Fold this protein.
Amino acid sequence: MKKILLTILLFSFLLTACGAPASTEAQATPLPTDLPPTAFMPVAGDPRTLIVMVHDSFSASETIIQEFEKNNNVKISFLKSGDAGAALNKAILSKDAPLADVFYGVDNTFLSRALDSGIFVSYASPLINNIPEEYNLDLKNRAIPVDYADVCINYSKAFFSKNGLPVPASLDDLLKPEYKGMLVVENPATSSPGLAFLLATIQKYGDPGYLDFWKALKDNGVVVVDGWETAYYTNFSASSGNGPQPMVVSYSSSPAAEVFYSTVPMEDSPTGAINSPGTCLRQVEFVGILAGTKNRDLAEKFIDFMLDKPFQESMPLSMFVYPVNYQAALPEQFAKFSQPAVEPALVPDNIDTQRDAWIGAWTQTVLP
Amino acid sequence: MIIKGLRRLLPWLAPVAFLGLFFFYPLLRILSLGSNFSFTSSSPNIFFRIINVVGFTFYQAFLSTGLTLLLGLLLAYLFSHFDFPLKRLFQALTAIPFMLPTVVVAAGFTALLGPRGWLNLGLMSLLNLEQPPIIFVGTLWAILLAHVFYNSTIIIRIVGNAWASLDTRFTDAARSLGASPFRTFLNVTLPLLRPSIFAASLLVFLFDFTSYGVILLLGGSKFVTLEVEIFIQTMHMLNLPVASLLSVIQLLSTLIFSIIYSRYVLTVTNIGKPRVGWLNLRKPGNIKQRILVIGLLLCLVIIFALPILALPLRSISRFEAGRAEFIRVGPALTLDYYRELFINRQSSLFYVPPFLAARNSLFYAALTVFLSLLLGFPAASALARPGRLEKWIDPLLMLPLGASSVTLGLGYILTFNGFLNPERWQFLPSSFNLLTFPLLLPIAHTTIALPFVIRSLQAAMITIPNRYREAAAVLGASHWQTWKNIDWPIISRATISAGAFAFTISLGEFGAASLLARPDYPTLPTAIYRFLSQPGGMNYGQAMAMATMLMFICGVGILIIEQLRLPGTGEF
């Protein structure tokens, strides 16, 4: 009897869980059920669907997106596609039958690759006028800038004040003996902020001068880990991981995130960012309309929406990035605790051809 | 003749069609894309690098498999010979690591053995040291230990099942003829267990060979295996030709090992009468046995429970605002993280309600179990009576385990994007795309689970002596009756094990999930990763809380599966 009951339980569990796996948003495409085929034919007035391909770190406020959907009679479906590299790979591989209408998430280290593969079509949005020229890296408007973030070294305020140490003011300071073993960086081969920091050193010390810097840094006990999660949550001392290193390569907005996501209300962030000239790298993220889309008009409207004030102003607290639109105001909490970089380094032009060589040389120098 | 040939072909139709469509075809497509790798234009440096990487991959896989075998055999002996209170709980405990996402396991190991982990902090305060004495994370030992932690359950289950159903007459005869227990083990038990040991070891080896998360997170950047290099070349360098070359090397190695295995195992015939049910399990009798049992259980708890325990503990402790101190200032207990899981505080579009994620995960897991058992059974029964066809197909069956999930994921994109075009097939909604169809994920899980299931079932089916089937046929039983009354009782335990494997594989699988486009059908591992990719105490706590939920669900799921005594088992 018991056996029969348990078997029935298992199968009924299988059956009841059948149907559609539950979705987070009501607007997701439903699985085909036994409705007549005519139910799927578009009827005048029915909202169309716009698919936006994004990377995994994308986040947006529900209210703002819903307002766009209401105003334009459209349903937006976000297609999360892995990290920045994975998402771009997918977009390039599916060029002939694009998975989405809009692709957001190309950053300036991958920009030339994306443009060369021809996945985007050009769109000269009127709102581009509100974006400072320095972010508009594609003059043909195939990839349009949406936000930027600065990769900077974060430090633990408590550690430096307790030990009476001055916070390093430049990259050269990191080589001083009093900071031995205090910095954790990410491997540029496996981590985007790691690569960004490497590029910042290349911009400052030149090629091959940067290798001398890294050799000295290695002698001063720098710790290398694979990715941001490990560096921040395992090695960094001012995060919940409570690790041994008081300095980590992270983002200039991370201190604000620490306050925002803290478990107890905080008046000051436990971390700060080193943002003096030349110590940070500016990463810009772009959006573009995928070639082959059947919803060109809606895609254009969506890009205009992304560049407009409401969406731009919502980005700092959802993704912890800075808006490119200079008319957008920063939320107070964000502006108070995050410090944008002063004269950040920019991604070198020859990143595409040299990436492999730089990372290879770095690996030879730093990893024993 | 033709009909007989067709009948031999029949059990293979479904599994081969499934693997052919969902594994071989996408793989070939993506590899052909990278075939323009030109040997002349690449620097000689790259060949040195490749050789180094391949060498290290084999080295760590061999070492890990050896260590896993050692621990696994000890624990298999424990579980197959003794009965003790909470036995099922301990068995489920060894299976839980198998499905934990690597990020979470790395966090657990670091909490235990890292520079600020319990062990180091304890030793530092005990011996008054300045620097943490034990360096663990970032060494080869971390990789080896993590592999043992993950994969012991494979050995325990497969070899344990075989051991429990071994015919005791042989060992009894050996003992009564005067052989010591050690000699009996060496000369009688071990040869009888060889097929299952080989099968389990091959599976463990392939897992270690293609291991990615453990190498990256616990080994650090010094150690690079084939899989890590493929990831780097594909995802960060966007260099498909080199990645394809590495994938081919990986697959060829897998194929070679598979061929060696099948050459050996398929020629083993079995003698003896297998035991069925859960007979011959006794409580430890004398004091020596008690010590053994308790000692092994203690080992089990230390190796399996301690790293896992760090997660629930982290999920209920809140460190005070002075957490930037080196020494933790008395953590407070809190359920805040669990509460927070259910609130969408920033009304974010991508908020993942935990019950929803759990339900999706369980649904995919159930589907994977169903599909892999459905396809695995015919394949395993065909393999149990190998003919010429089986000799060819057998090595190919292990390939899904040896293929890089990155390569396969990209192959899926090439193949399934635009497959079943809605314009041609009118009944599909206009925005249908097979690639984003949510059921593609359990299908991907099944391609990984299938080799497991087939091997587990095959190892059990080999133990069925043909004499019984022949006797039944002579007595007039039909094929179905023979199967129901002879085969089924013997392999039922293996079926449950295989089902449990498929369940855990699907529940914790993250690689395929991250490569297939996921339109808002979140699963628990992806939700955990989301939390860990942003700074902030709340995010970290919620990640730990969700990981604890995942562990709990998996444990309960395994216990339920094991409770199932499917009809017909028991007395034989």
Chain B has one domain: 7-21+44-341+350-563. Residues 79 and 160 of chain B are 7 Å apart (CA to CA). Chain B has a mean pLDDT of 79.
